[in-house]
Amino acid sequence: MSPRRSDPATKPALVDIAARLLAENGPQALSTRRIAAEADSSTMTVYTHFGGMSGLVREMVREGFSRLQERLTSVRETADPVADMALLGRAYRFNALANPHLYAVMFGGSSLAGFSLSEEDRQHGRYTLGNVAECAERCLVSGRFRPGDAILVAHQMWTAIHGLVTLELGGYLIPPYDANACVEAQLVGLMVSAGDDWPSATESVARSLERVDEIEM
Amino acid sequence: MSPRRSDPATKPALVDIAARLLAENGPQALSTRRIAAEADSSTMTVYTHFGGMSGLVREMVREGFSRLQERLTSVRETADPVADMALLGRAYRFNALANPHLYAVMFGGSSLAGFSLSEEDRQHGRYTLGNVAECAERCLVSGRFRPGDAILVAHQMWTAIHGLVTLELGGYLIPPYDANACVEAQLVGLMVSAGDDWPSATESVARSLERVDEIEM
DNA sequence: CATTGTTGCATAACAGCGATATCTATTAAC
DNA sequence: GTTAATAGATATCGCTGTTATGCAACAATG
Predict the structure, then answer these.
(1) Contacts by B132-136, CB closer than 8 A, 24 or more apart
(2) pLDDT score at B204
(3) What was the ipTM of the complex prediction?
(4) Does the keyword Transcription regulation apply (chains A, B) (predicted)?
């Protein structure tokens, strides 16, 4: 009873290599052989550390959610919770644009790559909503939002921004209305749909635009 | 100079076989060999008809948008354009739930499967927005929506519903708030964000729920 | 009807993939 | 130091998309 321990640094190193290959050379560059070549080892390392390619992808999904959460938590609380909420939306989009391939794996990899997320993975993804839900709660208690359920409001924010970002990354937005214009309109619309009145929402969204340095990590 | 012509029925037959394999056995069942086996032919048929696997996938994307458009055009115009718009949103979701794998390929396949949509394909996808834009125009001229641009409004509808459906198919919606509840809230919120007042929006969305037989093809 | 040019499609092969069995060698515990 | 257990290398299997080759079938021509 005395196992051989592997270098604890190789596992995150493999995830880094995989993420870099994915970002630089696209999804089809994610092969055990290329990863092994980059890591100066054999294809077996992927199996000993992650149990297979899907295990590595799962780890990358966790990494992706981790980056997203980090970006979201960089939004500071201010006296204007609606502006904070708008900045959360911008942060969500920034993260997706900064890690497009990783983002695609996070939300589209399960149904395409033949691997399925565990319930634990999904739970991890849902915790992302925590920051948004807290901010929604502050919007609710401030009276800016119509009385309702914070998590439901957070859901609406999440799904709307997620859809916008997904279509933007896919190149589906119609040219005259570029993504930035859609984002501004979407953010204002979301705040109004949650109960804020139009002038206040417009002003808060504009104010959040001046705080983008908070989320440009 | 006298070429041999192939059976013009085999090409759509191959697309049908591919769509069936995708729907019944998942994305990893989409292989040239399995398709050839189902069609009682060789793997070369895929190359002579589509120039490769990516060409077949592209054709499936077109098929997917065709089904979506068919479902959207099944929404009849009524005197309540806001209810029509809400029903368009329901139709969009119905189509996605009826063809989940196809839907995943339509919007997530480009960045994952190593194949890229041409600008023509994207243009075809954007035409989907036509129905929504027309309905948005009717909502605008009726005075129910705040004066603005119909296409921009259509964008907001599309992105929001698309995001909701994507997260629903991915299993990311938090249990106590099931997808149906999110849809109702999302639809009402969208109409309000476009300018309709809350009671009218609630009533129109509820009225659209009674018309789901229009879109259950 | 025969010829001929062109093409659809089958066969076989190639490069690459994920995964696995086997083996070696390293390492921690006793 | 001995020993047990695991990390990792090598080779292999079955699968994938793709392509070169060759044959057979069809349309246009005479």
Answers:
(1) B132/B72, B132/B85, B132/B88, B132/B157, B132/B158, B135/B75, B135/B81, B135/B84, B135/B85, B135/B88, B136/B85, B136/B194
(2) 98
(3) 0.91
(4) yes
